[in-house]
Amino acid sequence: MKEGFVLPESEIISDEDINLINKYTKRELNKNEVYIFSLVLCDNEIDRDYERFTSESLEALAKLFEGKTGILDHDAKSEKQLARIFSCKIQTLKIKNSLGENYKRLIAKAYIPKTQSSEEIIMQIDSGIKKEISIRCRVEKKTCSICGDNINICHHIKNKNYFNGKNQVLCHTILENPIDAYEWSFVAVPAQVATGVIKTFSNSNYNSNYNQEYNNSLDIIEKIKHESNKKGMKNLYNIIKNMENEIKIGREYIDNMRESVLKNLTFFNPNLNNNTIKKITDSLDYEDLKNLQKNFSKNNLIKSQLAPDFDRTDSNEFLEFKI
After folding, report:
1. Closest Cα to residue 182, out of 165, 164, 197, 162?
2. 48-84, pLDDT tens digit by residue?
3. pLDDT tens, residue by residue, 192-206
4. What is the C-alpha to C-alpha distance for residues 54 and 90, in angstroms, rounded to an integer?
5. Domains of the chain, residue spans
6. What are residue 163's DSSP bridge partners?
7. E strands along the chain, which residues?
8. pTM of the model
């Protein structure tokens, strides 16, 4: 699980809690100045992306998430920072996960300074409105649960059952060796990122979504390639490979169109911040870009400063010249 939730139990601030909190503050705060709550960040169960952390991964994440900031909707703007984790621990419950292992989860404690501006978020947490949690982190290894190889190059497919000689077992990704924890976030719907736990963010939703889709298509193509010796699969592989090439060409065409629109908007809106204009163009779909480019072409926008405003072929004035 890479999605978590706020635990409903009420929290009493201990001396140990306030001492840990004050490691992250500029001045020492007292118990009346902070609100604390506990949350589950992740566990060792197979999640909806058919991925799971090992017990060792949870231990590593416990260290990496200490001191990490909590935000809203994975928006990294400073005004979206709401809380900070001050302690983490692994909790083992008296139940088994779907693999028959002891169920373990990563529990964190976070604090929010009590201010006028934080009253609303504290009320939303207490009332259960702010409850779902999503994390962003990076792991070094993504291993196939069936063969133990890198999940991106082996021929097994996630969410498919394979016979291991005794039983049918579900193929999933084992997430190992966490190397960084970015942040955790309150979300309305926990994030589902098909490329795995390497949860990086980009200034361009267009680019990040495209890269995710593109990488997924490559994974699928490689898996089909491994099955290409079977009847009919070779033709299917060739068809998909051709489609992938056509999609790549189409994306390059849209990228060039987006760049052209960006230049026009920047040139004719000099008072607007370049980053703002880029965010606008990144959010436009193909039809929007096509209409804008057509409008720019119709009005002859962005001509060379040295280009004449008349057709030289209509005049004999420039047929002869002297140096």
Report:
1. 197
2. 889 999 999 999 999 999 999 998 877 767 667 889 9
3. 332 222 222 333 343
4. 12
5. 3-141+179-197, 202-301
6. 168
7. 3-6, 34-43, 51-53, 69-72, 83-96, 102-113, 132-144, 161-163, 168-170, 173-186
8. 0.57
